[in-house]
Design goal:
The chain is 32% helix and 26% strand. It is built from 10 helices and 14 strands. β11 and β12 form a beta hairpin. α5 crosses α6 and α7 runs antiparallel to α8.
Length: 312
């Protein structure tokens, strides 16, 4: 997958794609339906499959001090899109100039002149241009005028309601990762490099791979049964494990992170890139009377997680 970040300078082979446009936070089933239609449209006109999105997320640009809401970072999103067969990721810089484009300027300057897109697929709630003034009807009119096709996809329903990043966040906040996965079409994953920690897990007999969750929407704090993918390095592969997401109340620390104990694993993962999928919420964070009580609970957590994961 090729990543293009500036619509002003685009190589000839990166123009002319059939794209799905949106923020694709989580790359949930609704997003995947949009991408699938862009794939079909591209096959019909012999155009590569692309996704057009923005970095940072426009909400982060306009509300930089708002609580973190992202389900995944840009790297995790790129990983998921590549797995879906996306060939061109137009991850455009969202800045003051982009935000100031009128709907017509966005269609002309970005879609038509800049990227030379041949077909566009968007969800029914898609808005674009300054102050989100452009509607799907406007996009269809611009397409007829400027020479690109437009497909509008109805919002997808799943379970009891519409598939949306908002409802996925709510499910995760309430400790319901399986409900989130039903809408995502995959386990909710936290992805990033393994960072240095206090090595308390190693001292307790449960060495963990520590990861930052900075900038992400936090699922319910506590212990989870998890599926782990080591994405690079000598230990690349898939594993089972148990992870603690939280602030480690036993040790008086309060910066949230993710600490994952990988079952039946031995090796140095510092600097490796991990993807940790949340499967089941086991329990909330607790403060124990002593270290032995904590160790006993960790042993129980791991046994429970092993049983859950063995049934997948």
């Amino acid at each position: 997958m090729r990543i293009i970040r500036d619509y002003h300078f685009v190589a000839p082979q990166d123009r002319g794609a059939s794209v799905a446009i949106g923020n694709f936070d989580g790359v949930h089933l609704g997003h995947q339906a949009v991408i699938d239609l862009a794939r079909s449209a591209g096959d019909a006109i012999d155009a590569p499959l692309g996704v057009l999105t923005f970095q940072p997320h426009p909400r982060e640009y306009f509300q930089p001090k708002a609580p973190s809401f992202r389900l995944m970072g840009s790297q995790a999103r790129a990983t998921r899109l590549q797995r879906l067969g996306v060939e061109r990721l137009y991850e455009l810089n969202f800045n003051a100039a982009m935000a100031a484009l009128s709907p017509r300027e966005f269609a002309q300057n970005v879609i038509c002149d800049g990227l030379g897109l041949r077909h566009i697929v968007v969800g029914a709630d898609f808005c674009f241009g300054q102050a989100r003034a452009g509607t799907v009807e406007d996009l269809q009119a611009f397409g007829r005028e400027m020479g690109f096709g437009v497909t509008v996809v109805p919002l997808l329903e799943a379970g009891q309601g519409q598939v949306s990043s908002t409802s996925i966040r709510q499910a995760l906040s309430e400790g319901r990762p399986r409900d989130a996965a039903e809408q995502l079409g995959h386990w909710h994953r936290i992805e990033g490099p393994v960072i240095g920690g206090e090595q308390r897990g190693r001292e307790l007999g449960y060495p963990t791979a520590n990861m930052s969750v900075d900038g992400l929407h936090l699922p319910k704090l506590g212990v989870y049964a998890v599926l782990v993918e080591v994405l690079d390095g000598p230990f690349r592969g898939s594993y089972h494990g148990a992870a603690s997401l939280g602030v480690r109340p036993m040790f008086g620390e309060n910066t949230p992170n993710l600490e994952t104990f990988i079952f039946d694993f031995s090796g140095d993962l510092y600097g490796a890139k991990l993807s940790v999928g949340l499967v089941d919420f086991l329990r909330p964070e607790l403060k124990f009377d002593g270290l032995q009580a904590l160790i006993d609970q960790m042993e129980q957590d791991c046994a429970t997680a092993r049983d859950i994961l063995a049934k997948l």
